[in-house]
Amino acid sequence: MTYALAWPLQQAVYAALQADPAIAALVEDRIYDAAPHAERTDAPLADYITLGDETVRAWDTADGQGSSHDFAVTVHSGGQGYAQSKALAGVICDVLVDADLALSRGRLIGLRFLQAQAQRGKGAERRRIALRFRAIIEDTGV
C-alpha cells in the first residue's frame, strides 16, 4: 500500500468535475482544494465545490498492491434553500460514480458513492452538502 495514489486520484477527480458542462453551468470554474477567502460584499455567496478530507487504507491482494480512498466533495451554497445545492450534488454524483478516470499513476478499479450529509451553513454559506465517495485503486507503479 502507498499513499502515492492520493494525488493522482485528486487530480483526476478535479479534471472530471472541471470538464463537465452541467457542473460548469452551475458553478463555472469554482472548484477548489480549499475554501476561497470570503469577499466583503453584500452579494450572496456564489455556489462552489471543494475537494476535501480523505481516509486511505491498504487494499493489497496476493497479486498486487493498492489502496482504498474515502474522500469528500463538498457543495457550498449561499442559497436560501437546498434546491440548487442538491441539484449540484446530484450532478457531481452523476459525474463521479462508476467514472472511468484516467490516473497518472495506478488504475481505478471502482468509484462509488458512500453517503451525503446536508446541513445548514453559517453566515454567507447557508447550505452545505458533504458527499463521500470510495475509490479503489490498484498501484501499477511509478
Describe the structure.
With 142 residues, the chain is an alpha+beta fold. Helix content is 25%, strand content 36%.
Topology (elements, then pairings):
Layout: H1 6-19, H2 21-27, E1 31-32, E2 48-58, E3 66-77, H3 83-96, E4 107-120, E5 127-138
Parallel strand pairs: 1-2
Antiparallel strand pairs: 2-3, 3-5, 4-5
Summarize the structure.
The chain is α+β, with helices and mostly antiparallel strands and 142 residues long. The chain is built from three helices and five strands, in the order H-H-E-E-E-H-E-E. The longest helix is centred in the first third of the chain and has 14 residues, at 6-19.
Widest sheet, order of strands: 1-2-3-5-4
Q: How many helices? A: 3
By DSSP, the count of extended strands is 5
Q: Overall pLDDT, averaged?
A: 91
Secondary structure: helix percent: 10-25%
Low-confidence stretches: none
Give the overall silhouette.
Answer: elongated
Distance between the termini: 13 Å
Descriptive labels:
142 residues; alpha+beta; five-stranded mixed sheet; 3 helices; 36% strand
